[in-house]
Specification:
Elements lengths: L7 H18 L4 H13 L3 H11 L4 H20 L3 H24 L30 H21 L4 H21 L5 H20 L9 H4 L11
Amino acid sequence: MTRPRSWWPDAAFVAAFVLITVLLARGHLFGLDAAVADWSDAHRPPVAYWTARVLNSLGQGGWLLMPVAGLLVALLAWRRRSIRPLLVFLGATLLTYLSLGPMKILFQRAAPRFEGPDRTALFNPAAVGQAGMSYPSGHVANAVIWYVVIAFGLTGLIGALGRRVTLALRVLPPAIVFGTTTYLSWHWITDSIAGLFLGLVLARLLARVPWETLPLPGPVARFERPFTPSVR
């Protein structure tokens, strides 16, 4: 996907995120969340558990996705003699940290492992610490936005990946993380759905920024080589 031309998908993703949040805040969808979590807990043999846990690493932003993406854009910046690839990485970092963290604190929802009162509710004062950082799913949102940056870095380093490879890189990891996060009961299914919509919004915002024409400080700009990123 090249730079988005229409804002309608963005508006639809935002509306879907808001709708899910409002429904949860009013006490809806809790039955769905509990039913999926209970089924997962009752159908999780050791082999399936460890397989899902390993695959879920595809959505680990802090120790996997950010270092991999950072290495790729750093290599691209060195090859192109341009700081602009690093700006893409910085933009993704700011978008995730300024949205996911505050939202998790604001909505204060317990994860399925929480055993206290109102375990499925938003704005639950009994859910504190890590148990209250479930909504929206950061794993899923990270898997959406950081694989955009990874695809960007790979494209710049080795050339066009091909439509099918790019699509697989953009779709498969978020889908796997969505399924495994929910199956492991690390997040309610509505957490994962909300994280998916939020990640799509952030990824499209990242792709809209004109990284190749952003003004740079004079000393940096004098040493810049022309660079046209291909955020897909």
